[in-house]
Amino acid sequence: MSSSTVALCTAATIVIVFLSLSRPSAARDSLLRGASIAVEDHATDLLLSPDGTFAAGFYAVSPTVFTFSVWFARAADRAVVWTATPRLLNSGNLAVEDAVGNVLWQSFDHPTDTLLPMQRLAAGKAMVSSDKLLAGGGFYSFRFNDYSIISLVYDNHEISSVYWPNPFYSYWQNNRNIYYNSTRRQAFIDESGHFLASDNATFDAADHGENVRRRLKLDTDGNLRLYSLELDDVTTSTWTWSVTWMAFANPAGVRLRADTTDWSRGCRPTFTFNSTDRIMKLLPLPHTDFWGFDINKGALLSLRECAARCKSEPSCVAFEYKVGIGECYPKSLMFNGRTFPGLLGTAYVKVPADLDVSNLHVHQWQKNGLAIEEDIVRCGATIDSPEFLLNVSGVSSSSSSNSIWFYFYGFLSAFFVIEVIVIAFGCWFFSSKGVFRPSKIWALDEGYRMVTNHFRAYSYSELQRGTRKFRSEIGRGKHRILVYEYIENGSLAQVLFDRRDYSKFLGWKQRFNIALGVAKGLAYLHNECLEWIIHCDMKPENILLDEDMEPKITDFGLSKLLNRDGYGSQMSRIRGTRGYLAPEWVSSLPITDKVDVYSYGVVLLELVKGRRISD
């Protein structure tokens, strides 16, 4: 072989080796989500700039030491131009610094679905919900909108809509300010649990204070929640986060899409409906509103005319009608809907005439806590059924001594026979345990619910009026049933101490209102009743919260009527619950209404602390 041939082969070999080192076969200029660069393959697993000038990856300082660096790929000495020196700070921020400590890159500038204390969310940045099926994240984001308002936004690349703050209100009704200077748009949460944004958006954690780990997360269901973890729990093997604030108290309020593999995307119709099909019917949704997508906005029509317009319009899928005002809002899309007792309008949804709605469930509105599903048909007779309404004159029909009837206060002024009630409402949908006896909750009509407590005649309380509304008594022989109003959100104890259920939580304003309401209730019992009353067992279990989180004092099983002639009372035995007992009980002192005040003080401490004093 000639010397020229050997030289040519040697040169070719050098070129091949050089090319293999400078441009690996798997060269790429970016990393897709889920991809990685392995240090084991540091020679070939690289990022390469499109023109092949720069490479990034694990740079071998020695056979056992590597740094993540950027270097000149085509230079013989592979000169390094940048080396990552990341530091994980106590704040949770992963920062890359240069030799003198200047931050070159930090994870706080690139939020995902979580914001940590003192991490700032600036203009152009967004928290995006995670989605296991979408590489780029979910459909929900928390960011500044075009009007510089920090907002929760739904965006599925076809529809984009703000759903928090309330899109039905203007920015000043939502207590927001508008800043057009992008440099001033920022939001953050501090270590005490206080959130503040440049548009005046603000909220506080229910456990506002120091020494608590916190994270603000945009969950997969589109709800923004603030989670807290007390430092006392860090030493345990498992950490349990508790929700101390959320944008939507009812998680079902953010349901927009349907997916059989991911229920967090909500619901969709169970039917395929041809909008040109004239064989249809309208399904009413009282006190319901859907924001936007109006075909003809606010035309003044009768209900019949509004329905006819929607039926004749192929693009109309529903319409809203405000009774008494006459405003008609045909809708081309049902989006960002809400049900609220104060809403005047009713939404009417177009459905096929042959669609069976006998098993449909309607979510009853609750301001705080999860909605309770009620079967609206399975109860048998409706309120207008002739077999249900026996007498509407307000006068009891004649009956024998064994007749069983009762009167619903403010409920159609009608008398009913108990057997008919049981038949008509044999669909009681929820059972619970009261403090002393079993209870049943009855769904009597749309949104009208009651609780019945069964006991024997001799235990019937002398109390005829309390802070929890008493509806009626049903009796047969020695058996009695008391009928009370249904209190939707359960007891204060459940809300405060049950960490497994974060659907109900209490902000500071709600806690103050509860404390004030209970104080007023006790003042009424002690000073304003026809018979002054000592409750004797004031504790969170005996404070119920209605749909507006207003407190109701209940369960007077240990109550004692105060003697108006003598302020103090002597009792033969201690009454109440350990941990809430006043010193008078163990000191043989006269029992006055101050024992309730002492117990109320313990409840007040627990209301502020969020845990039992005994813990």
Describe the structure.
The structure is a single chain. With 615 residues, the protein is α+β, with helices and mostly antiparallel strands. The protein folds into 5 domains: 82 residues, no CATH class; 148 residues, Orthogonal Prism (Agglutinin, subunit A); 83 residues, Hepatocyte Growth Factor (3-Layer(bba) Sandwich); 132 residues, no CATH class; 118 residues, Orthogonal Bundle (Transferase(Phosphotransferase), domain 1), CATH 1.10.510. It has 6 helices and 39 strands. The protein has a 5-stranded antiparallel β-sheet, with helices on one face. The protein has a 5-stranded antiparallel β-sheet with strand order 31-32-33-35-34, with no helix packed on it. β14 and β15 form a beta hairpin. α5 runs antiparallel to α6. The radius of gyration is 33 Å and the shape is flat.
User: What strand order characterises the main sheet?
Assistant: 20-26-23-24-22
CATH superfamily heading of the largest domain: Bulb-type lectin domain
Taking all Cα atoms into account, the compactness measure Rg is 33 Å
Q: Can you tell me the CATH class of the largest domain?
A: Mainly Beta
Total beta-strand segments: 39
Tally the helices. 6
Poorly predicted ranges (pLDDT <50, ≥5 residues)? 5-25, 251-258, 362-448, 452-466, 470-476
**What structural class do you assign from the helix and strand content?**
alpha+beta
How would you sum up the global shape? flat
- Main sheet? 5 strands, antiparallel
Number of domain modules: 5
Q: Mind telling me which CATH architecture of the largest domain this is?
A: Orthogonal Prism
